[in-house]
Structures are given as structure tokens and as C-alpha cells.
Automatic annotation (TrEMBL):
The keyword Plastid applies. The lineage of its organism: Eukaryota, Viridiplantae, Streptophyta, Embryophyta, Tracheophyta. CDD domains: ATP-synt_Fo_b. This is ATP synthase CF0 subunit I. The chain crosses the membrane at residues 32-49. GO terms for cellular component: proton-transporting ATP synthase complex. F(1)F(0) ATP synthase produces ATP from ADP in the presence of a proton or sodium gradient. F-type ATPases consist of two structural domains, F(1) containing the extramembraneous catalytic core and F(0) containing the membrane proton channel, linked together by a central stalk and a peripheral stalk. During catalysis, ATP synthesis in the catalytic domain of F(1) is coupled via a rotary mechanism of the central stalk subunits to proton translocation. Its main location: membrane. It comes from Sabal domingensis. InterPro entries: ATP_synth_b/b'su_bac/chlpt. One of its GO terms (molecular function) is proton transmembrane transporter activity. The gene is atpF.
Amino acid sequence: MKNVTDSFLSLGHWPSAGSFGFNTDILATNPINLSVVLGVLIFFGKGVLNDLLDNRKQRILSTIRNSEELRRGAIEQLERARTRLQKVEIEADEYRMNGYSEIEREKENLINATCDTLERLENYKNETLHFEQERAINQVRQRVFQQALQGALGTLNSCLNSELHFRTIRANIGILGAMEEITD
């Protein structure tokens, strides 16, 4: 095993005269290797890198344009909404004022209609009372008259003979007929 390790270590000490080998001097090889790798990357990767950057730039620009269009659209919608809000507020104020006026008119109409109804009811009540009073007075008159007539008839029946009795009844019937025509 020692021979295998020695053979790898000895590769690093061989002179580089005309042959390929490994340079183990880190300070000398890193800047050269890095410059070669960067040169190759820049030469071959320049087009790919430019394409990637251009694509990214185009996407960013289109996103910015889309955002600007969306912003303009949002501003226009906001202005339309503000205009509509102002119109709606004006209409609401008009409705409110018209509503208050309409409420006041309806209130006055209702009060007037109620007063008219109360006045009609009062008149109807007074007419009904007057009618009932007249009816009650007529009933009382009729009863008084009937009682007076019955009393007179009772007195006459006890005092009169039948012929006088018949003449008195006929006269009273004539008087009653005349009174009945007057009260109707």
C-alpha cells in the first residue's frame, strides 16, 4: 500500500518539461484556472446570459406595463365610483327632502281626514240622539195619551149609557185619527 501512495506523491514532483502533469502549487494555479474558466464562460455563456437577461427584462417591463394599465383602470373605476356615489348622495338627499315633505303632507291629510271623520261622527251622534229623543218623547206621549184615554174611557163607561157611550167613542176616534195624521 505504501507503494501506491508513494506513486501518487511522486506525480506532484515530476518536472513539466514536455509532459502533462498536475501542478500542486495552489497560489499559481487558482488565478490561471479561474481566468480560463471565466473566459470560457463569458465567451460561450455570453449569448445565453444575454438571452436570459433580455427575457427577464421583457417580463419585468410587461409586468410594469400591465401594472400601469391595471392602475389606470382602477383609477378610472374609482373616479366612476366617486361620481356615482355623488349622484347617489344627491338623489338620497332629494328623496330625503321629498320624503319629509311627503310625510308632512300625508300627516296633514291624515289629520284633516280624521277631523272630518270626527265631525261627521259627531253630527251622526247628534242626529241619532235627536232621533232617539223624539222617539222617546213620542212613546211617552202615546203612553200618556193611552193612559188618559183609558182613564177617560173607564170614567165614561161608568157614567154613560150605551148610546152616549157610542157617540163619545166615535168622537174620540175622530180626534185620534186627526192627531195621528198630525204626528206622522
